[in-house]
Amino acid sequence: MERCGTLLVAEPGSELSVCLHSWVEENGHQLIKVDSFKDVLMTLQGEKINVLVMDARLPEAMGYEAISIIKGLHRKLPIIITADENNPEQESRIRHQGIFYYHVKSFGMEELMLAISNAMMRSSQ
Predict the structure, then answer these.
(1) Can you give the pTM of this predicted structure?
(2) Which fold has domain 32-123?
(3) Residue 63 scores a pLDDT above 60
C-alpha cells in the first residue's frame, strides 16, 4: 500500500489540477496547485512535496530550464512534465534533465495517474 503524499501541480490554468483532484483525494494524497515557477520554488521550500507535475509552458520558464533549478534544490524529487503536444525536440531536451516522466496530455489521464502513483511510491522509499 502506498503512503499518502503531497502532489504539487504547476500549470498556467487549472485544467489538470481539476482533472486530478478526485483521484488524488481517493488515493489519500494532498494536492497543491500553483501557476508560476516562483510559486513552485516557494512551495518546495515550505512544504514536503513528494511529486511535482509541471506544465512545460509555465509563464516564466520553459520546463527544461526550470528542471535544473529544481533538481539543484531537491535532487531526488520525481518530476513529471506535461505538454500539450508531442514535440520530440522539446521532449528530448526535457528528458535529458533527468525527469521521472514526460506526459503528452492527449495521451489521456490514466497514463498520467499511473506515472504519479509510481512516482509517489518512489518518493516514499
Answers:
(1) 0.91
(2) Rossmann fold (3.40.50)
(3) no
